[in-house]
Specification:
Layout lengths: L2 H7 L6 E4 L1 H9 L10 H9 L4 E6 L2 H9 L3 H11 L5 E5 L12 H13 L4 E4 L10 H9 L3 E7 L8 H13 L4 E5 L7 H14 L4 E4 L7 H11 L3 E4 L13 H8 L10 H16 L15 H4 L3 H13 L6 H14 L9 H15 L8 H7 L12 H8 L17 H12 L6 H9 L1 H10 L7 H7 L12 E6 L2 E10 L7 E7 L2 E7 L3 E5 L5 E5 L13 E2 L5 E6 L6 E2 L4 E7 L2 E6 L4 E6 L6 E2 L6 E4 L3
Parallel strand pairs: 1-2, 1-8, 2-3, 3-4, 4-5, 5-6, 6-7, 7-8
Antiparallel strand pairs: 9-10, 10-11, 11-12, 13-14, 15-22, 16-18, 16-21, 17-20, 18-19, 20-22
Helix pairs in contact: 3-12, 6-7, 6-20, 8-9, 9-10, 14-16, 15-16, 17-18, 19-20, 20-21
Length: about 625
């Protein structure tokens, strides 16, 4: 540190550190796939480090656990708390979005926060994707009411409408709302060292509560950013254990501790203990190799595109599914243009998914806003809140026509929904009364929750089908995943690493042979024939594909995804442009329209089916 800064730092306390290893670190690097069984053996050691808090919940973990891992998120929280009694648990909450992708009614928000605190959460980091603080009103009130610590966060981003003075104003408003601490949430690693020094200096003068800095190392600036923020007087920083750090994750705790050693802000951590924890996760990470991608490392392009690492991985997956990965640069270049059209929202869940999916559609369809997702329409209508900049009026008109956008707090339009969710869940499962935690799980993710409850307790193999929806299956979910084969007298160790989407030539299997990764195409023996209902069914003995698009009335999807709902029946008369299907891709929903008027001659899909572009999903033929 410079001499002038050393003097001011002498009166500061040792830096406090929150550990992200059990949440954001594996979410950023391993697609949120780490299982509870891989956390529990090392949890007691993490509890001994002396962290200010450990992030154990929130973000995408809830969704990923029930969708892919077939684990109960509430149970994970309780199990970790049993073996980690010393360290406060922190979670990330998206305000009125909670952990889902829409706004939920106030009764749901209040109950969810109540149960989160009751099950073990001590500190809740509250943010809104648009920095619209109206969307934090209910979550703040509930957190304080039920005895939790509220850490109000603003999302750091760069545009002509964002500057450090604006962020200071947001921080002052968050403090007025009752924040016990203020977080600078730099989800894409955009905060440069000197900008951090300036921002923290201004915040320390403007507010009295502790200041917490969260960043990612995507741009490789994070260690330098932390050093300058520490010089300016930051109180708390987020780090991850080294074996799950850097790149799209947080900076390594060992590096920060070494930089500060013997200085006035030395956290005085036990490096031998940290090494033991790092070694554990070095081995654990190997079991999740199938979920790592080339987009989790350092990428300074984030400074131009402002695309967080997790969002980049999602874009890459969507493009690879339709053999369009070579168009990644076009999509990344389109993201800032869509963001500008949308009023420069920070790119963080759910706004990052909305912007990223729309940018992908714009590129792949060859026409900007030819296909607009349901979430994009809701965003343009104001149902997610108000961004800092103005929304492009022509784009808004494409999305919502002559309909007026709302200006009130979006949740003011929502009726209480928790009791109806409880009734719906009990009717669908026909199992009697469910716990309030189960009702909340269902409210946040209705379809995924039903599948989870039906499979619950049946073992980890049930993760196979859901993981296939992501295009790849990790080794622990395949049975058997390891075996030996003998060829010409030589024995080879074979391990199945993952499974890709079926396409031309079959389905790709990723196989390790004596540790070397090979891709093998396996041809399907499934025959596809129409059923009486007009949809396609599969049978052994023939080709595995729906008909290819060949006529004007063949309805397809612009992106790979899953069918959420079918809006027509065979024999229906439809007008040109009518909605026939709703598809979910990248956790966003899109309406699929018929290009012509006519009769629905055949329906080749049903709810839950995976679909790809160029397949006929619904066949519409003009009437003679």
């Amino acid at each position: 540190m410079a001499a002038s800064n050393m003097k001011s730092a002498e009166n500061l306390n040792p830096i406090q550190i929150m550990d992200t290893t059990l949440r954001d670190a594996h979410q950023s690097i391993l697609a949120t796939r780490m299982r509870t069984e891989d956390m529990l053996p090392i949890a007691a050691k993490i509890d001994q480090v002396g962290y200010a808090a450990v992030e154990t919940w929130g973000g995408a973990t809830f969704d990923a656990m029930i969708r892919y891992l077939k684990e109960d998120p509430w149970e994970r929280l309780r199990e970790l708390k049993k073996v980690m009694p010393k360290t406060p648990f922190q979670m990330l909450l998206r305000g009125q979005n909670l952990l889902g992708y829409r706004h939920y009614a106030d009764d749901v928000v209040e109950c969810f926060i109540d149960r989160s605190i009751s099950n073990g959460i001590d500190i809740i980091r509250l943010f809104d994707a648009l920095n619209d603080l109206r969307n934090l009103k209910t979550s703040f009130r509930a957190t304080l009411k039920y005895g939790g610590k509220a850490e109000g966060a603003f999302c750091y981003t760069v545009s002509r409408f964002h500057n450090n003075d604006l962020f200071v104003d947001l921080a002052k408003r968050l403090e007025d709302m009752g924040s016990d601490a203020i977080c600078i949430k730099d989800m894409a690693g955009l905060l440069s060292p000197y900008a951090a020094f300036d921002l923290v200096t201004k915040l320390k003068k403007a507010i009295s509560v502790p200041i917490h800095l969260h960043t990612h190392d995507t741009s490789a600036m994070s260690v330098a950013t932390y050093v300058k923020a520490i010089e300016a007087g930051i109180d708390i920083i987020d780090t991850a254990i080294s074996s799950l750090s850097s790149g799209t994750s947080q900076p390594p705790v060992e590096t920060i501790a070494a930089i500060l050693k013997d200085g006035p802000r030395d956290p005085k951590l036990d490096m031998a203990l940290l090494t033991e924890i790092a070694d554990y996760f070095t081995e654990t990470r190997k079991r999740y190799k199938a979920f790592e991608s080339e987009y989790t490392g350092v990428d300074p392009r984030v400074l131009a595109y402002q695309v967080p690492g997790g969002m980049t991985s999602n874009l890459a997956l969507q493009l690879s599914e339709q053999n369009a990965l070579d168009r990644m640069k076009e999509v990344l270049e389109e993201v800032p243009r869509v963001r500008e059209d949308f009023g420069f929202p920070p790119l963080v869940t759910p706004s990052s998914q909305i912007v990223g999916t729309q940018a992908t559609l714009n590129v792949l369809t060859g026409e900007r806003y030819k296909v607009i997702t349901t979430e994009t329409k809701n965003y343009l209508k104001g149902l997610y809140g108000l961004p800092s900049g103005p929304i492009n009026e022509s784009v808004q008109k494409k999305g919502i026509g002559d309909e007026d956008a709302i200006t009130c707090r979006p949740a003011d339009l929502l009726e209480p929904e928790l009791e109806q969710s409880r009734l719906d869940l009990e009717n669908k499962l026909n199992e009697g009364e469910k716990s309030i935690e189960d009702v909340l799980t269902y409210t946040l993710f209705p379809k995924v929750a039903i599948d989870f409850f039906k499979d619950e307790g049946s073992g980890p193999d049930l993760g196979l089908a859901s993981a296939e929806q992501q295009g790849i299956v990790p080794p622990p979910l395949l049975a058997p995943s390891e075996f030996n084969i003998k060829v010409h007298g030589e024995t080879f160790e074979v391990q199945v690493g993952g499974v890709g989407y079926p396409g031309e030539g079959g389905r790709p299997y990723f196989i390790y042979i004596d540790g070397h990764l090979e891709e093998v195409m396996v041809e399907s023996l499934m025959e596809v024939v129409p059923s009486e209902e007009g949809r396609i069914d599969a049978h052994v003995g023939g080709q595995s594909s729906r008909p290819k698009v060949s006529e004007e009335g063949d309805v397809t999807t612009p992106m790979p995804g899953a069918v959420v709902s079918v809006k027509v029946k065979q024999g229906d008369r439809v007008e040109a442009g009518a909605v026939v299907l709703v598809i979910e891709a990248m956790k966003m929903q899109s309406e699929v329209h018929t290009p012509i008027a006519g009769l629905v001659k055949a329906i080749y899909v049903s709810e839950g089916d995976r679909v790809n572009p160029d397949e006929v999903l619904v066949e519409v033929r003009a009437e003679a």
